[in-house]
Amino acid sequence: MFKTLADAFKIKEVRNKLLLTLLLLFIYRVGCWIPIPGIDSEALGLNVENNTFLSLLSAVSGGALSQGSFLALGVSPYITSSIIIQLLAPVIPSWQRYAKEGADGRKKLSLYTKIAALIIATAQAIAIAVGFGQAEYADLAIFGGQAWVFYTFVVLMLVAGAMFTVWLGEKITEIGIGNGMSLLIFVGILSSAATALMGTFSNLTVGGETTQTAIWQLVLFVVALIAIFALVVFVDGGERKVPVQYAKQVKGRKMYGGQSTYIPIRVNANGVIPIIFATSILSFPQMLMSIFAPNSTNAFITWWNNWLGAGTWVYSIVLSLLILAFAYFYTMLNFDPDEIARQIQQNGGFITGIRPGKPTAQYLKGINKKITLFGAIFLAFMALIPTLLFTAIGTGGLNSAFSATGMLIVVSVALEFDKQLEAQMLMKNYRGFLK
Asked: Residue 274 burial (CB < 10 Å; 0-12/13-18/19+)?
């Protein structure tokens, strides 16, 4: 990847796109450090760290949420809305037509995604503003002691920041290289990881002397992190190639077909979406409790925190089951074996040893179920084992920065960016050849 970057800077057009991408990412990071007036970021940061869902949002935004900054919501509303639109598209007939209409249809779905992102951002901003408005987080003096003025101001700032983030992501996609939203998440996670590592290095010295135990803990953490990244890269590139043979067809004086190809079925085709869904559902009640009743001794809240709070064994079991369920559910929406079998048959193709039509669809469905099972088990493994491993090593403070979701996103975005950069360079070479 580093060699690809070095080669890319030698080409003027690609270099300009890279520099524009870096500039827009820099603007985003600056926005993540601009605080909202009247917020006590230090007190707020402690509350965010104690909540799984809020700490995940803060890690994705590069710590912007824990600091109460202008871009605290980051890309979270847009990602949530895009997932919702993807889930509803196969169900709503008009949206199904939009998905098949090409560029015009995608523009309409993109508009609906932005509207949904605006609604979700407003709802999240109101909930967070209520949490910010608690006495330990807010200074209402600069707002004349009027709580409603404070709430209105914070909601407007957060919603404006979320939509500005959407605009930045679209600009990166349009004039830069790679998917803008993915790169914003990528930069946010790397920023959180760098901050956590710097904090760990600063804590290595106690009384002016470096402790040997802390050094060994950090070495073990780095080794475990490299092993987990290697596993993620290995599984991310894993796929089952189903061979397809196309028969020769004579039309007039020309012969068509007669070639072999394959259908790639990825092991982890769902990415991190099942983990995000499962974590959001389990952590959402805890987030509401921490915002609206942070110091409550209610029996239900106490029971929830003791049995379904983050880190409990019941939470781990339920999280694993939800990941498995969402992995199969999302695969059913995105992989249609009947449609694939129909297209193969219409183009004169067949899978060796399998009859065209319904038998081919059943064969593909069976393979997809087995592959999805391995992918779901891998996601459940990634959601639980790294956290337990890091805690056992003694570096539990780095768990939020190096979460399973974050590591999966970083690897997938880095690999996709490398592919798009190579495609840009290849396109430039073709243009030069044609000239």
From this structure: buried
